[in-house]
Prior knowledge:
DNA Polymerase III, Chain A, domain 2; 8-stranded antiparallel beta sheet; 6 helices
Amino acid sequence: MHVNVTRKALSDALGLMERVIPSRSSNPLLTSLKVDVSEHGLTLSGTNLEIDLSCVVPAEVRHPKSFVVPAHLFGQVVRNLGGELVELELDGSEISVRAGGSEFKLQIGDLDAYPPLTFPDAAHVSLDAAELARALGSVRYAASNEAFQAVFRGIKLEHHADVIRVVASDGYRVAIREFPSSGAGRNLIIPARSVDELIRVLKDGQARFTYGDGLLSVTTDRVHMNLKLLDGDFPDYERVIPKDIRLQATLSAALLKDAVNRVAVLADKNANNRVEFLISENRLRLAAEGDYGRAQDTLEVVQRGAEPAMSLAFNARHVLDALGPIDGDVELNLSGSTTPAIFRAAGERSYTAVLVTLRV
């Protein structure tokens, strides 16, 4: 076997694989990378038993033959090569890796012992990959990191008649993003950590979904991925979204981020990074207090609604996370000082953040 491949193409693919393949495991085979060599190039495959990933790398090949190699060691070797054109040559139980004037020889593993990974060819539904990545990235912050919170550790995909809705919640906040789509798909919950890896492989083109028993397979032009799904019922998040909006304030999202960052320096870290919002007479006053002093800031807003003034308090970190996906102006939609608040981009409804207030 002899392969010529560019170092950049191989390094990029190995970077994706190394995020999935564990560097240490009680089962050494799980730390290995399988490389299937064909006349069309290389197919890299690996698994951590939660995610199976396969990535295609264009290459010039003579005498194809597959092999198994330690994934992270192989990646380190490729990144440290001196040249841009990498040569791979299989000789008995060793794989030679050459570029420029450098050469490494690595022991290969037992190809027959490597667990078989299968990826479906047919797809049930096809989605815009860039839109899906944007939606998942917009709501990821609201998913819980706590192991005991079960389905809160996942992100829900809901297929509606003409849109896909992506939802995350940790019980204190809800983040929702919608984008247009057609086709009948299933509602499912993907673990947030798996979503992180899915976002990295989604580029331009289409992401083709294939549904299995507790499994979602995602295929793009270069990548195949199997994701284990979370089992359980996602909470009824819609019931916490307020319907009776009593006050609305519109202002620059960038200015609000900067102001919250400023006053949060003195927010009490033992009191949920509390920042108070007081909206009155087309002004928003932000205030925070901690052991070492007080801080406040004032911003001009466009104010509407039946209530002339309203005072609320939020976790500063939650506010900054909610503002992250919003460009331009943000609308604060408030129904009361003790009920959840809605943050949206002004004049646009595809992204919604709902924050639970702290006691004033």
